[in-house]
Amino acid sequence: MALRELSSLEKYLGLKKPNKYSTQGDKKVPVLQNNNGPPLVGLVTIACHLVKEAKRPELLGDSAEGRAVVQQWLEHRVTKLDGCTKEDTKTILKDLNLYLQDKVFLAGNQFTLADAFIYFGIHPLIVEMPIQEKEQYVNVTRWFDHIQHHPGLRHHLPPLVVLRNRIYTSRHH
């Protein structure tokens, strides 16, 4: 999964020459063989490197606070989201739903790497979720739909249909 995400990120960033990746350990941690130095290890480390290589620093946050928030979400993805249990999923989605209550993006007023990798991370959870459960996480669903339509991002993932149900008041019945 992580290798496909990194490949999608490369395409999104417009990097011309695809990198060579391998994995290490039971958790299949991605490794980027770096021509001019030691290998880079870990999803977040490699993703940040690719963003810098593409000269797209705004994807890492547009201020010191923004950069800290992006790093925090990337860390959250790797430590909490990857390999979470069914019980963890509910807590993660509940917390994310609350966080997104008054936000369009995870960090600041623009799309960042945090949005991409949290989207990649929760995609498999949302795919398997019944509609009734999705309705419990309206802010996550709204954010998810917005991010999945971000130009050039969703290379390796199928789009998900997000239903928007109208809520009628009793006098319309």
From TrEMBL:
<dbReference type="GO" id="GO:0005634">
    <property type="term" value="C:nucleus"/>
</dbReference>
<dbReference type="GO" id="GO:0043517">
    <property type="term" value="P:positive regulation of DNA damage response, signal transduction by p53 class mediator"/>
</dbReference>
<dbReference type="Pfam" id="PF21972">
    <property type="entry name" value="Arc1p_N_like"/>
</dbReference>
<dbReference type="InterPro" id="IPR036282">
    <property type="entry name" value="Glutathione-S-Trfase_C_sf"/>
</dbReference>
<feature type="domain" description="GST C-terminal">
    <location>
        <begin position="49"/>
        <end position="171"/>
    </location>
</feature>
<dbReference type="InterPro" id="IPR010987">
    <property type="entry name" value="Glutathione-S-Trfase_C-like"/>
</dbReference>
<protein>
    <submittedName>
        <fullName>Eukaryotic translation elongation factor 1 epsilon 1</fullName>
    </submittedName>
</protein>
<dbReference type="InterPro" id="IPR053836">
    <property type="entry name" value="Arc1-like_N"/>
</dbReference>
<dbReference type="GO" id="GO:0017101">
    <property type="term" value="C:aminoacyl-tRNA synthetase multienzyme complex"/>
</dbReference>
<dbReference type="GO" id="GO:0005737">
    <property type="term" value="C:cytoplasm"/>
</dbReference>
<dbReference type="InterPro" id="IPR053837">
    <property type="entry name" value="AIMP3/p18_C"/>
</dbReference>
<dbReference type="InterPro" id="IPR042450">
    <property type="entry name" value="EEF1E1"/>
</dbReference>
